[in-house]
Design brief:
Elements: H1 2-14, H2 20-59
Length: about 60
């Protein structure tokens, strides 16, 4: 178990951590993508709902 922790410590020292600026930039990109996809899904749902309602009114 001690060897595993030692190897873990050695491997973590090899990690190149992002800067604060990179982290903020990447976070903003993810938030923008989530908002964009959310709006796209909402619009698709609204259009699909309108089409289905139109079909129901057409055939009923």
């Amino acid at each position: 178990m001690g060897r595993w922790f030692h190897e873990l410590k050695v491997e973590l020292k090899k990690v190149v951590w992002p800067t604060r600026k990179q982290t903020i930039n990447n976070t903003l990109i993810v938030i923008a993508c989530v908002v964009f996809v959310g709006i796209f899904i909402w619009l698709f749902d609204a259009v699909a709902n309108a089409l289905i309602q139109a079909l129901f009114h057409l055939f009923s």
